[in-house]
Amino acid sequence: MATATIDEEKLKDLLKSALIEALTEHRDLVQDIVEEAMEDIALAHAIEQGLRSKAVSRNEVFAILEGEQ
């Protein structure tokens, strides 16, 4: 049985090339993934902030949303 050997540097260059090509051809997909990740991080921060803040009633929330502060 024959085994293939490949130079580590050549393999590294091939992987870099393949990754660059994939990112270039699917730029919109990469952008969507990054945007989703940023939204998830922002949501996690908002939840953490909400857990640290004082509780308010449902009526207070709707009053603020309706501009009746």
Structure report:
The protein is mainly α and 69 residues long. The protein is 75% helix and 0% strand.
Report Rg: 25 Å
Helicity range: over 70%
Number of helices: 3
The average pLDDT is 91
Question: Layout of helices and strands, plus pairs?
Answer:
Elements (H helix, E strand, L loop, with lengths): L7 H18 L1 H26 L5 H8 L4
Task: Give a short overview.
With 69 residues, this protein is mostly helical. The protein has helices at 8-25, 27-52, 58-65. The protein is elongated, with a radius of gyration of 25 Å.
Keywords for this entry:
69 residues; mainly alpha; elongated; 0% strand
